[in-house]
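Lab notes, practical 5.
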Amino acid sequence: MLTKVPLENARKEVTRNKLQDKVDLRLGSGIEVLKENEVDEIIIAGMGGMLINNLLKANEKVAHTTEKLILQPMQAPEELRMFLYQNGYKILDEHLVREEHRLYEIIVCKYEGLEPQEIDPIYYEIGLKLIQNNDPLLNDFIENKIRINQNVLKKLEGKEGQGIEDKRAALNKKIDALNDLLNK
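Output from the prediction step:
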């Protein structure tokens, strides 16, 4: 589900790759343009994790009957993972992809009606499947997460207050957990 300009670009790519019999592109809002059991796979890319959560909630019947969801959050992937674990989805696979200087996360999942799962919060940040698969970009990804958190810590220097101290403690805890993953 795309806006008009990306939709036209996608149509050109589909035609160029001779995939017209396999891909149906529609202009619309999220997965609301789909019917239950109409598609085997849905790809949702280029959005924040919270927006992806909302798209899945907006048409649960479709999300729940699709064989595979391929999700590529641009922001808040930890929020997306938390949503998936707490709303009956099973994460089947995860990959990292480098595009220029940025790393993107790809989460492949399926609704299985699982009981809500509580996991160590660090695995919302760094997907378990990325670790299990020993993704070739995993160390770069973790190092980048450490740098981001260290930069936030630097911005807190010279600031005081209980909220600031709580934020510092949470950031230091996260940096320690990320370093533990990096050193495994």
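Observations recorded by the TA: Residues 162-182 form the longest helix (21 residues). The chain has a mean pLDDT of 89.
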